[in-house]
Design brief:
The complex is a heterodimer. Chain A is an all-alpha fold. Chain A folds into 2 domains: about 270 residues, Cytochrome Bc1 Complex, Chain C (Up-down Bundle); about 150 residues, no CATH class. Chain A is about 65% helix and about 0% strand. In chain A, strands 1-2 form a two-stranded antiparallel sheet. Chain A is globular. The two termini of chain A are about 45 Å apart. By secondary structure, chain B is mainly α. Chain B folds into 2 domains: about 35 residues; about 240 residues, Cytochrome Bc1 Complex, Chain D, domain 2 (Orthogonal Bundle), CATH 1.10.760. Chain B has a two-stranded antiparallel ribbon with strand order 1-2. The radius of gyration of chain B is 26 Å and the shape is elongated. Chain B starts with a helix and ends with a helix. The chains are: A mainly alpha, B mainly alpha. At the A-B interface, helix 4, helix 5, helix 11 and helix 15 of A face helix 1 and helix 14 of B.
Chain lengths: ~475, ~300
């Protein structure tokens, strides 16, 4: 048993029992972050703040919300928005934060990709982050259902229906998820449970895990420099603050985060008060009506890119229907980012602008996802269908090309580009109906998917390190 | 610092392009452009005759208007209660006391003369399915007199009044306690409540039978459609929703604005508070940003 002495202050009394001083050192005062960073390194704290806002505003909303298809709409739009003291503020804050949080997640994610912060020991940071992305997506989807507006209902109808595409168990799975044959009261109550209990708990645990994964490999820096954190920390503690390459989390790192956060809050609250329609779609202020399909059904903006990967395949290929082709690509799109550390065969940790071809890969990926996002909302008629196809195939092609590109396999890279170009041409012929659903395109897709699945396995990592 | 601003600029541009694509651009593709409302009702011919209100009062009686319509301002009661009226005509015919306060004068004359054409309901009513209100076969002078009479008795309407006269016989506004058969009263007991609800259900069934659909509750329309859409829609429903059962009701621009004001009051009651509080919250974070920047500079001076 530890040795306890008579405490000379409350703090001392607690410190003897809880080791507060040591805890504070480990968590903040001597938790070392590289000094060579820019404001993109503040996104983690911004995300943490947004999540806190979501939890707190959510608690207030939970006190008045009624998870019942007959009451839900009015409990949100009348009770909370009009009757409850500042209920409208909590609702606007919750809805806008739910949308904006994804903007920050995407910035956070692409910062990690740009600076190669997902490899050489940082794989678990990346994976726990992706797990957070997936649970946040589920949280957003379940939350969007709760006001029981037109888009709540129809988005739920369309998305839950996607599970029907899973072979053999699909139809039963859809019923199991909905708790009924169609989206209805049991669907609402179970998604309510997921939204306010199970998913938030998982998210909180994952956030803790995500923080923990940073401990051993440490935070990356702007140049991808391999820093000896212990030596640099000693320098800092010895007073060589200017020479040391690291800074403590508190107060140095947080003082910068605090500034970035304050500026971000101006943007966020501007949206909350004056520009909320992008996050609170007007159509969802129409009560859910199972008898009346809206002319345009689309998910929230942060799901549009993967939705467009689903919609992009507009023609049948061999034995597979357009819907099957879309579902396969959609399934891949939703998990592929997890595998980034293994698709990238280059062990170099450096910003993309110093990694040759990867720089182009990065910006092509960003552009492709923006195109997917925009075309995910546009009606898929006329040339939009083909543009969606280009972007959807392009998304998969970028991944298929990544191992060859980073592994220095030029021949393989050209093969991927060639097959993709063929798919673009055949797709155009399908679009103009110059080519029927034929043998050639089926084989080309087969080769394409073979390249996609085999290259990350077959291409060896450069330098052998992994 | 320059590098940080460069990164910020790239993010702002990319987010800006994405936003433009999924909001203004996508919505312009989903909702094709239409001409904004003018409230001129140019397809209708003006009645260039001066009317005499006193002769109009007589003409209204002679032409049988009060066989269906009440004019409470003149002490003429409704021949039937709303539910029975809806069973006969599909919808309760409006009281005429304040109709001229919200309906355009030219439209009113044209509507009385040939309702189906003025309401743009030719796709729903014709010789096989006659409109409940017959065409007017009197002289144009009679028509001008009737319009003059209706104008003389109409009292200016506040936003709620304008809504009731213009929309209230087909649309509920439940967040304001309004139903198609009138304001929901305080019930003394369950029987009164049940009786009221039965009446409402009967009226709604008749209305649905008449229109082919139940007209929506308008409580949240200010958020779901927005003021511009409502304005343009009310002026000419067929233009924005081709084939809809909703008649053109011929509101004046001023009356439409009153209706919108009421919908805003009912559906977005906290707008003023929101706009007001927003400024203070933003000001708070602007000041906080300045202070946070100064603090950051102070701390980082030691490490740079």
């Amino acid at each position: 048993m530890a040795h306890f002495t008579k405490a000379n202050s409350v703090y001392d009394w607690l410190d003897q029992r809880l080791a507060l001083t040591k805890l504070w050192k480990v968590l903040a005062a001597e938790y070392w972050i590289p000094k060579n960073i820019n404001f993109l390194w503040a996104m983690g704290v911004v995300l943490m703040t947004m999540f806190t806002i979501l939890v707190i505003s959510g608690i207030f909303l939970l006190m008045y919300y009624k998870p019942d298809t007959k009451l839900a709409f009015d409990s949100v739009n009348y009770t909370i928005m009009q009757e409850v003291w500042f209920g409208w503020l909590w609702r606007h804050m919750h809805a806008v934060a739910a949308s904006v949080v994804f903007l920050v997640i995407y910035i956070h994610m692409f910062t990690g990709i740009y600076y190669a912060s997902y490899k050489r020991g940082r794989e678990m940071i990346w994976i726990s982050g992706m797990l957070l992305f997936v649970t946040f997506s589920a949280e957003a989807f379940s939350g969007y259902m709760l006001p029981w507006g037109q888009m709540s209902y129809w988005a739920a109808q369309v998305i839950t229906n996607l599970f029907g595409g899973i072979p053999f168990i699909g139809d039963e799975l859809v019923i199991w998820i909905r708790g009924n044959f169609y989206v209805s009261d049991p669907t609402l109550t179970r998604f309510f449970m997921l939204h306010v209990f199970l998913l938030p708990i998982i998210i909180m645990m994952l956030i803790g895990f995500h923080f923990y994964t940073l401990r051993i490999p440490h935070v990356n820096n702007q140049d991808g420099e391999d820093i000896d954190f212990d030596a640099e920390a000693e320098k800092y503690k010895a007073g060589l603050k200017k020479e040391s390459k690291v800074i403590p989390f508190w107060p140095v790192f947080l003082s910068k985060d605090f500034f970035v956060l304050s500026v971000f809050m101006i943007f966020y609250f501007y949206l909350v008060f004056y520009h909320y329609d992008f996050a609170m779609d007007p159509i969802n202020f129409d009560p859910a009506d199972p008898m009346k399909t809206p002319p345009h059904i689309y998910p929230e903006w942060y799901f549009l890119w993967s939705y467009e990967v689903l919609r992009g395949f507009f023609f049948d290929v061999g034995p597979l229907s357009a819907m099957d082709m879309g579902l396969i690509a959609f399934g891949i799109a939703n998990i592929i980012f997890f595998f980034l550390p293994w698709f990238d065969k280059d062990p170099t940790v450096a910003p993309a602008d110093r990694r040759g071809g990867f720089f182009f890969w990065f910006w092509l990926m960003v552009i492709d996802m923006i195109v997917l996002t925009i075309w995910g909302k546009l009606p898929p008629t006329g040339i939009n269908a083909y543009i969606g196809y280009l972007a959807a195939v392009g998304f998969l092609a970028l991944w298929a090309a990544l191992p060859a590109l980073t592994g220095g396999r030029k021949g393989l890279l050209w093969l991927v580009i060639l097959v993709t170009a063929l798919l673009y041409i055949f797709g155009y012929m399908e679009y103009t109906k110059a080519l029927g659903n034929g043998f050639v395109i089926t084989v080309t897709f087969l080769i394409f998917y073979l390249l996609f699945f085999l290259s990350p396995v077959m291409v060896k990592a450069k330098g052998g390190a992994q | 610092m320059n590098k940080e601003l460069k990164i910020l600029a790239i993010i702002v541009i990319l987010v800006g392009i994405t936003y433009w694509g999924i909001e203004p651009y996508a919505h312009s593709k989903m909702h094709p452009h239409h001409e904004p409302a003018t409230f001129k009702y140019e397809d209708l011919k003006a009645l260039n005759l001066k009317g005499d209100p006193q002769r109009g009062a007589q003409a209204i009686q002679n032409n049988g208007c009060t066989g269906c319509h009440s004019i409470k301002a003149a002490g003429i009661p409704a021949p039937m209660d709303p539910v029975s009226a809806s069973a006969s005509y599909g919808v309760n015919p409006p009281d005429l006391s304040n109709i001229a306060a919200v309906v355009d004068k030219k439209f009113l004359a044209n509507f009385i003369k040939h309702p189906v054409k003025a309401a743009k309901l030719e796709h729903k009513f014709g010789s096989s399915k006659p409109y409940p209100m017959p065409d007017f076969f009197g002289s144009d002078q009679d028509l001008a007199d009737i319009v003059a009479y209706l104008e003389s008795i109409a009292k200016p309407q506040d936003p709620r009044g304008a809504f009731k006269v213009a929309c209230g016989r087909c649309h509920d506004l439940r967040y304001d306690g309004w139903t198609v058969i009138g304001q929901k009263p305080k019930f003394k007991n369950e029987i009164e409540k049940a009786e009221f609800e039965l009446k409402k259900a009967k009226y709604e069934a008749n209305l649905k039978n008449y229109l082919g659909t139940t007209p929506p509750d308008l409580s949240m329309y200010i958020r779901s459609r927005g003021p511009e859409y409502i304005r343009d829609f009310v002026e000419d429903p067929q233009k924005l929703l081709h084939g809809t059962a909703m008649p053109r009701v011929g509101l004046t621009e001023a009356a439409t604005e009153e209706v919108i004001k009421h919908l805003e009051h009912v559906g977005d009651r906290k707008k003023e508070k929101r706009d007001h509080l927003g400024i203070w919250v933003l000001a708070y974070f602007v000041i906080l940003s300045v202070l946070a920047y100064l603090w950051k500079e102070k701390i980082w001076r030691e490490v740079h």
